[in-house]
Specification:
Elements (H helix, E strand, L loop, with lengths): L5 H20 L1 H8 L2 E4 L2 E4 L12 E5 L6 H15 L7 E6 L2 H12 L4 H10 L3 E5 L15 E7 L29 H5 L6 H6 L15 H7 L3 E5 L7 H9 L4 E6 L8 E4 L2 H6 L7 E6 L3 H19 L9 E5 L9 H9 L11 E3 L21 E4 L12 E6 L9 H7 L17 E6 L6 H13 L3 H7 E2 L20 E6 L15 E6 L2 E7 L4 H7 L6 H22 L11 E2 L1 E5 L2 E4 L2 H7 L16 E4 L2 E6 L2 E6 L3 H4 L1 H7 L2 H12 L6 H17 L5 H6 L1 H27 L3 E3 L10 E2 L41 H11 L3 E6 L11 E2 L4 E2 L3 E5 L4 E6 L8 H15 L5 E6 L9 H9 L2
Parallel strand pairs: 3-8, 3-9, 4-6, 4-7, 5-6, 7-8, 10-15, 10-16, 11-13, 11-14, 12-13, 14-15, 32-33
Antiparallel strand pairs: 1-2, 17-19, 18-19, 20-27, 21-22, 21-26, 23-24, 24-25, 28-31, 29-30, 31-32
Helix pairs in contact: 1-2, 1-3, 3-5, 13-14, 14-15, 15-17, 18-24, 21-22, 21-24
């Protein structure tokens, strides 16, 4: 079974929660609860839901950068949404892709046994799944609908045509007729009808058929209200496409794309750094610019690939690094023919022609080749434009771009080929975790900026991620001859200005700023730090807010790039490990994790009397009114045909329902035998004591499962809280071994899960371990400094602080946490001191100090401190404590305590 990556699991949890909330409380409430908050220039807001595209049909977008496994994620999403929104474990899904090449690839991925995407569906459906193209839909039997998941893969172009008589998907198909028997008036109302035009196009229809529901592929889909998945959704957002989808009456729409466009309701967004942390893509991209000509670029690209092949032999998996050449078009200096001659000639690189494949419109030497096959000899691929859609080879490591970056429209697609990590697993050799780009540069273009721009606009990177993704050449892979390249100092920034500044450079800045006029304005060369004074001077060249915004973005990009080079994590410095909070459990010291927290409370489902408080069903037509946890909600049932009431009502028993609930509500800390026993007692309680019929429970089984899960979690929390408080005095910081702690957390130099908004203020932090700072605002909307910024600044300025990290909440793998009776809590700041001690700071506003959760966090933090033997310090900081001390004084007092 292929395990979901952390960000994929979070995306599915968000989708699942959104659609559950949608069922219970409506679209507006679901969107306001789960849509992400955005920020720009210190202002925060939540985008409004855009209903212009599909009206009442809920439509949301999942944004994941290139290489993030969108197809694998969507395969899981179909099953999850089928249960949470459509009340079925056998959904119908229409999977739309932008081209025939992608359609063929997707069909293969979803159909091939042991492929990760097929395994994703098998996890939910077993063998009860049919994957087919549109023209294979007629082979789906009527008995399969509702018993098997049916996934129809097609292009949007298959539906988009004005004259529906000319497209097979809208044509009458006699083999589909059995699916249209005994329809209700409500079902028929949504279906396309036979017209005179149909009779003219299909002579076997007669005038008696006019006005009847047409047995067509489009009507079959409409009849079953499919979950629609749109891959590469930014290619399909046209009025015609949306009109087509509205006519199919889908249950919902889920868009998957790296680059959403206006109108996309982005519900979940993951950055490229998350992909890199999960070893899905190779980062950074080590960039080497070659102003001396294309042959030098080719030479060093070949040497880089050769060096990687030596390192690949040390990997546990088979990897044969591949180099992609992007040659110039016809009538240029570095065409395919000239490049091939140079690569194979005695005066050139002397490569074996059998190791080279040409992939252009005329030459298709990659067709039928499996590059991952150990028997394959291909190590070099020459192309001009984008490689064939669907072509994918994680062995591609090196890109050699011989075209002018300004004129190439396909470089981002080819660049995407070298980003995927082989086997999506970490590499034992650090150099094998990076991608490499050798680019021919010119005197007017800065290749790093252009590559970063392509990463943002076409591959789903955030601007800060793109800046961090391009590594300078001084950290590049050494070549086989031991040499390496060098470029200008990383502290030198190059910023384009709209016009030449009219004001002279201030005396204090003359040594660090040089202005070079250009045909489009000017270029500012800044040597050293991009201070607030430097920014103010450069902005004098701007006329209006738009120009200022462009220059500010360029300055921020350069600051990010400088920070990436100068941050302690980038310089190879290590952050000292922090001991975890542990407990002596059965004679063995164990970290207090979620599993142990559950055991602390001796969690027992039967400890409380049998009940499902607040759960009632009052059925009216096809609507269930369900009262869960005291709040009445309306829960709309799906069409009775999809629920198979005739089968369930006649044959289901309480044991059948219990077995189904067991699958839906399975708990990692509750044995299956115990859970089944408790569920059976609960169902019988609802029937005998609450007078709810078995049929009603079966028909409302999905909201029933939701209520059961909530009840189990409530009982668990009651037990955990009692056990936690009882055991807290026995908690201790992990004991030290010879070199470290037995159980410790360490901040990894390349695994910082920061999320926007990132710090972008004028104060320059000197000691933050990572180049970006998670969720730190300098000023409030009223212009006053935020309290957390003042705390961070006080930390950064203290003489005893060696490194510090703005800790990221809800990231238990990559952030430091301490346990509470409910879950984990993530202190705001984690610091390594110059004397080797560790300082952890949780900042709280004065209004929260009396909050029970805050008191518990303070209690846990001090237990961690007191049990550490002086190695660790914990501070609950505030703007001003009871003795009138500000944050700086509180930190000083704690360090000297």
């Amino acid at each position: 079974m292929f395990k979901l990556k952390d960000y994929q699991d979070k995306a599915l949890v968000t989708l699942d929660a959104f659609f559950r909330r949608l069922r219970m409380a409506g679209l507006e409430s679901a969107w306001q609860t789960y849509a992400p908050v955005q920020e720009k220039s210190g202002q925060t807001w939540q985008a409004e839901y855009d209903a212009n595209a599909l009206g009442d049909v809920p439509a949301v977008c999942v944004r994941i950068p290139t290489g993030g496994g969108k197809t694998f994620l969507a395969a899981h999403a179909v099953a999850r949404v089928g249960k949470s929104y459509c009340d079925t474990d056998a959904p119908v899904a229409l999977w739309l892709v932008p081209s025939d090449a992608i359609r063929s690839q997707t069909l293969a991925s979803l159909s091939t046994p042991r492929h990760p995407c097929r395994e994703a569906m098998t996890e939910y459906f077993g063998e009860r799944v049919r994957v087919c193209a549109l023209d294979e839909l007629a082979t789906v039997g009527r008995h399969e609908v509702g018993n098997s998941a049916i996934i129809v893969v097609a292009t949007i172009q298959s539906f988009s045509i004005t004259d529906k008589t000319k497209r097979n998907v809208y044509s009458f198909d006699e083999s589909l007729a059995p699916h249209f028997q005994a329809l209700t008036p409500q079902q028929e109302a949504k279906l396309g009808k036979v017209t005179e035009a149909d009779i003219a196009a299909q002579p076997y229809l007669t005038a008696a058929d006019i006005g009847k529901a047409k047995a067509s592929l489009a009507n079959w889909l409409t009849l079953h209200q499919p979950i629609v998945v749109v891959d590469e959704a930014h290619n399909n957002r046209t009025d015609l496409a949306f009109r087509t989808l509205r006519n199919l009456h889908p249950a919902c729409l889920i868009e998957m794309t790296a680059t959403p466009v206006s109108g996309s309701n982005v519900l979940f967004h993951v950055g490229a750094q998350a992909l890199a942390r999960e070893d899905m893509i190779k980062l950074p991209i080590v960039l080497m610019e070659h102003p001396t000509g294309w042959k030098d670029a080719v030479r060093d690209a070949v040497l880089t690939r050769d060096r990687l092949e030596v390192l690949a032999a040390k990997e546990p998996d088979y990897i044969r690094p591949v180099l992609l050449f992007q040659a110039e078009p016809t009538n240029s200096e570095a065409t395919v023919e000239k490049l091939l001659e140079h690569l194979t000639s005695a005066d050139g690189e002397k490569l074996d022609r059998n190791q080279i494949a040409i992939a252009t419109g005329d030459q298709k030497e990659l067709d039928g080749i499996v590059l991952a096959d150990p028997a394959c000899a291909i190590r070099y691929v020459i192309t001009v434009e984008a490689l064939k859609e669907g072509w994918d080879c994680p062995f591609a490591y090196v890109l050699c771009g011989l075209q002018d970056m300004k004129s190439s429209k396909d470089v981002e697609q080819i660049l995407g080929r070298v980003l995927r990590m082989p086997y999506a697993r970490p590499r034992s050799q650090p150099e094998m975790g990076k991608a490499y780009a050798h680019m021919v540069s010119n005197v007017t273009a800065r290749v790093a900026d252009q590559l970063a721009d392509r990463l943002v606009k076409n591959m789903g990177f955030e601007a800060y991620e793109a800046a961090l993704a391009i590594a300078p050449t001084q950290s590049a892979l050494p070549l086989l001859d031991g040499s390496s390249h060098h470029q200008t100092s990383p502290a030198e920034a190059v910023i384009s200005l709209p016009v030449t500044p009219t004001q002279p450079i201030p005396d204090a800045l003359r040594e660090c700023i040089e202005i070079r006029p250009t045909t489009n304005g000017a270029t500012a060369i800044v040597r050293g730090e991009l201070t607030g004074a430097v920014e103010d001077f450069l902005l004098t060249a701007c006329k209006g807010a738009k120009q200022q915004e462009v220059v500010k973005e360029a300055i921020e990009r350069e600051r990010t790039r400088q920070a990436a080079l100068l941050a302690p994590s980038a310089r190879g410095e290590h952050f000292a490990p922090l001991p975890q909070l542990c407990l002596d459990w059965d004679g063995e010291v164990q970290p207090v994790e979620k599993r142990l927290l559950s055991e602390l409370g001796e969690f027992d489902l039967f400890r409380e009397p049998m009940n499902l408080a607040g759960f009632t069903i009052r059925e009216s037509g096809t609507t269930f009114e369900i009262d869960v946890e005291g709040g009445k909600v309306v829960y709309q049932a799906t069409d009775s045909g999809q629920l198979h009431l005739s089968e369930i009502a006649a044959h289901a028993s309480d044991n059948d329902l219990v077995r189904w609930l067991d699958r839906e509500c399975r708990q990692i800390d509750v044995g299956q035998a115990v859970l089944i026993k408790w569920l059976l007692a609960l169902v019988r309680h609802l029937i005998a004591d609450r007078s709810l019929t078995l049929t009603a429970l079966v028909r409302a089984k999905y909201p029933l499962a939701e209520a059961v899960r909530r009840q189990i979690e409530r009982r668990r929390q009651v037990a955990v809280k009692a056990g936690f408080q009882k055991s807290l005095p026995g908690f201790l910081a992990a004991p030290r071994l010879e070199e470290s702690f037995r159980y410790a957390f360490t901040f990894h130099p390349n695994h910082y899960p920061a999320r926007p908004p990132f710090y972008s203020g004028r104060y320059h932090f000197q000691h933050h371990y990572y180049p970006v700072i998670h969720d730190l605002r300098e000023k409030r909307n009223d212009g006053q400094l935020t309290e957390e910024f003042q705390c961070a600044r006080a930390i950064d300025m203290h003489r005893q602080i060696k490194h510090w990290v703005r800790n990221v909440e809800k990231e238990d793998r990559f952030s430091f946490w301490l346990p509470t009776s409910k879950d984990y809590f993530y202190p705001d700041f984690v610091c390594e001191l110059t004397d080797g001690r560790m300082l952890v700071i949780e900042y709280k506003g004065a209004h929260l100090l009396s909050d029970p959760e805050t008191k518990e966090k303070n209690q846990v933090g001090h237990q961690w401190e007191q049990s550490s033997g002086g190695r660790c310090l914990f501070l609950m900081a505030m703007a001003e404590d009871e003795q009138g001390r500000d944050v700086s004084q509180q930190i000083e007092n704690k360090l000297n305590w």
